[in-house]
Amino acid sequence: MMNAHWHPPQLHTAHDTEEERKVTWLELFYDLVYVATIIQLGNWLSDNVSPSGFAGFFFLFVLIWWSWTGITFYINRIVVDDVWHRVLIFVQMFAIAVMAISVNGAFGEKAGQFALAYAGVRLILIALYLRAGTHIPEARPLTRRYATGFALAAVLWIISAFLPAPLRYAFWAGGLALDFATPLSRRSRQMNARIAPDVPHMSERYGLLTIIVLGESFVKVISSASDEHLGFAALISGMFGMIAACSLWWLYFDNVAGAMVRATGRAPYVWIYSHLPLALGLTAFGVGIKKLVILHAGDPFADKYRLLICGAVILCLVFIALIDLVTVQSEQRTSSQTRAQLRFGAAAVVLLLAFVGAWLPPLGLIVLIACACAAPVVVDLLLESRKSGPLTRPVTH
């Protein structure tokens, strides 16, 4: 029996209604637990800046991003907001919170706790898909396929919680491989094509995640700065760090957020999965800025910190360019190829700084990085202003 509090899931299609679909309050509330989780990941990287530390950070970030992407795709396709759905989402949020508090010991004494928490996150997603398949016959082949693949991966994660290292990590790798292979297999992609996602809603969700990880940069710097007496060099470094962050925001949200994804070839998959290294780069950028502004504004800058901040910015610029290449913006007079070339060029400059920056003071390094990030923004504006002809209305959601 259906009422305001109990009703079955329904399949959403982009053309069900002319009314624009909005992100729900539950989705926004759900994102808050990821704010805390990403801050924990950034703190872990800050304490483990090394090749092995970054490898660990990369693996953990992939898991966090994948868990967020899983529920995002479910909500994008399935419309439901009853008591059962909310309870399951709240339980999943608890499991994500356990993952967050386990980050610091994920490769040590809290490895079992972390593995069981991640398995719990996936089991809740499986329950959601099974429930949707029960009520939506046309979605049942896809929901069963997802539930089966994700369940096999979850079993590996549960088993890993009781295994010693390094065997434990082999099971982690196998579980993650199964998680990714399930939606990316040829059969799954064929099924996905029959139940197309709501692109504007998806664009808004990934835009919100980008805001979350970009905001982590400010949290890192401001929270650390509040406990320090900052000198003039640190304040100026922080200002140029802000310029770099604002430039990255501009490049993403002025050009690619909300644009229509090309519906040909692998463009949708490039668009989705480019957000993973972009989000990772933005998080690492926040850690690098903290190291530069708070710890080393006027002191020699260790090679590992220079490589961290330059590598993070390169990731951001390269994958913003790739996202731009697979989207269509009706309000832009400059071609996506031209914009992408500007971003790739800026990334090449930062790559050069990663090598020659050893001879630069930290303040000089961040000034040049900020200029490299701001240059594509300035050139974009100049190119747009020199073009003639009326603008069409932008593609928005």
Secondary structure layout:
Blueprint: E1 10-11, H1 25-47, H2 51-77, E2 78-79, H3 83-102, H4 111-135, H5 140-160, H6 167-184, H7 186-194, H8 199-225, H9 232-253, E3 260-261, H10 267-295, H11 303-325, E4 327-328, H12 336-356, H13 362-386
Antiparallel strand pairs: 1-2, 3-4
Mean pLDDT: 86
Helix content: over 70%
Fraction in beta strands = under 5%
Q: For the largest beta sheet, what order do the strands appear in spatially?
A: 1-2
| Overall tally of structural domains | 2
Number of helices: 13
The secondary structure category is mainly alpha
**Poorly predicted regions:** 390-397
The general outline is: globular
N-to-C SSE series?
EHHEHHHHHHHEHHEHH
Q: Provide the gyration radius in Å.
A: 22 Å
Commentary on this structure:
By secondary structure, the protein is an all-alpha fold. The chain folds into two domains: 10-194, no CATH class; 199-385, no CATH class. 73% of the residues lie in helices and 2% in strands. It has 13 helices and four strands. The protein has helices at 25-47, 51-77, 83-102, 111-135, 140-160, 167-184, 186-194, 199-225, 232-253, 267-295, 303-325, 336-356, 362-386; strands spanning 10-11, 78-79, 260-261, 327-328. It has a two-stranded antiparallel sheet. Helix 1 crosses helix 10, helix 5 (140-160) packs antiparallel against helix 6 (167-184) and helix 12 (336-356) packs antiparallel against helix 13 (362-386).
